[in-house]
Amino acid sequence: MEQGVVILLFYVIGVVVLVAEIFIPSHGVLTVVGLGLLGAGLYKTFQISSLAGYASVLGLLVVLVVFAVTAVKVWPHTPIGRRISPPNPVLSKEDTGNIDESLQPLIGKTGLALTTLRPVGTCEFDGRRLPCVAEYGMIERGVQVRAVRIHGKGLAVAAATDGRVEQGPDRLSNQTKEVTG
Q1: What does the pLDDT look like over 73-112, one tens digit per residue?
Q2: Nearest residue to 57 (alpha-carbon basis) of 47, 43, 67, 69
Q3: Which CATH number fits domain 99-180: 2.40.50.140, 3.30.70.890, 3.30.70.20, 3.40.50.360?
């Protein structure tokens, strides 16, 4: 058989075996065989000419990248792929936990950080002490906060102003004792 035909067979059979790996669960055995066939074809190509060998290297890089991308996109939709990696479930409200709807009227209102939020702490809104999460960064104790959204069973808050609330230190220290004690 002519040497060019042998090289072409190595390449074609190697690509066919790699494509078969997508649909046949072989735990990578077919991938190793396919890459071995492509490597043998590449070796034989370099024996003919180094220019042809470098051209084959570039061609194989393109083929392998296309193979990898196709495998990642196609494999999850094959019967074996669906068994091994089923689609993500769609979560309902019951799955994610009950949201406290009584917090909805507090969105947009200002309150007081009773503890330092790093990022979790306690704030007071309309006389209610609630668990809160700082939207970003850390919020010091005594800073006015604005409720941004409901976050689980509490509120996500952001600092309302750069200044502290104009309240006596007795009020803050008493509330901190209630929260921690």
Answers
A1: 887 888 877 887 777 788 776 666 667 778 889 999 999 9
A2: 43
A3: 2.40.50.140
CA gyration radius for the chain?
A: 32
Token output for 82: 């669906």
Burial bucket for residue 68 (CB in 10 Å: 0-12, 13-18, 19+):
exposed
Q: What angle do CA 144, 149, 155 make, to 5 degrees?
A: 60
pTM of the model: 0.46
Beta carbons within 8 Å of 86's beta carbon, 6+ residues apart: none
How many CB atoms are located within 10 Å of the residue 157 CB?
29
Sorted by where each begins, the domain ranges of the chain are 3-84, 99-180
